[in-house]
Amino acid sequence: MTPRIVTMDGRPVDTAYGLSISPHEAMGAADIVTDLVLDCEKPFAGLWTRQIDWLRERYAAGATICSVCTGTAVLAEAGLLDGFEATTHWSLADVLRQSYPEVRLVAQKILVPAGPEHRILTGGGATAWEELALYLVARFCSPREAVRIAKIFLFGDHSEGQQPFAGAQRPRRHDDAVISEIQGWIADNYHHGNPVAAMVAQSGLTERTFMRRFRAATGSSPMEYLQTMRIEEAKHLLETTERPVDQVAIEVGYEDPNFFRRLFKRRVSVTPTRYRQRFSKLRVLKGQA
């Protein structure tokens, strides 16, 4: 999928903030349509005749139509929301209820998929574009990719800092073949009990030599490296499954769920349950698509 910016005549548009947006083309065959310019000071009827004709044509052809903030009014005027749930910016809610009683407005929601195959999406206030963007990525790519993007761009609640968004750093390159082999072993056996002793045995080195070479190659101790791998796998399970936290703890190698919770909170800055609340919604939205 290649995103395209379109305008009615293909010419640049000056925004209210003084920025000019250069489109790729005039209204044509775009598959995903973002919202259009709206002047709430004027009556809506008859304002967007050409745009509405084009939106109806694209929707009939199978396009997914999206709006954010007050752009819901355009879709309501087009009749695309009749009988469906929709959301909008809270300041426009009463106006839309009066003007379009056929629309089932749920202004308390941030994002509302509606219509056959959920091909109409309405978002709340202007920053709801973040929720919309992640939803589209989860729907058309994968929930895992949406989570990755949310972490990279820090989409979501920032009250607990950046750490909940952070992922493990890429392993450091090195030329120690023995340690490389052990790293591969850890990837498949991180959940086993007493793994550090097993690493030493697998390496064929003395414990002291192994510890020294492992730190020199990776920049961390074997236990630190193992904990990082376990926590990253736990995060993946919390994002993609509904397994209880205690079960997640056991699956990644911790027999004591309380120790796992404390370690997770120390490393990620939030509890496992809170982490799941942050990122599992993308999997839920994907399931509703």
TrEMBL record:
Pfam families xrefs: DJ-1_PfpI, HTH_18
Keywords tagged on the record: DNA-binding, Transcription, Transcription regulation
Domain of life from the UniProt record: Bacteria
Gene3D superfamilies: 3.40.50.880, Homeodomain-like (1.10.10.60)
InterPro entries: Class_I_gatase-like, DJ-1/PfpI, Homeodomain-like_sf, HTH_AraC, HTH_AraC-typ_CS, INH-QAR, Tscrpt_reg_AraC-type_HTH
GO terms of molecular function: DNA-binding transcription factor activity; sequence-specific DNA binding
HTH araC/xylS-type domain residues: 180-278
PANTHER family in the cross-refs: ARAC-FAMILY TRANSCRIPTIONAL REGULATOR (PTHR43130), HTH-TYPE TRANSCRIPTIONAL REGULATOR RV1931C (PTHR43130:SF3)
Protein name, UniProt field: Helix-turn-helix domain-containing protein
Annotated source species: Sediminimonas qiaohouensis
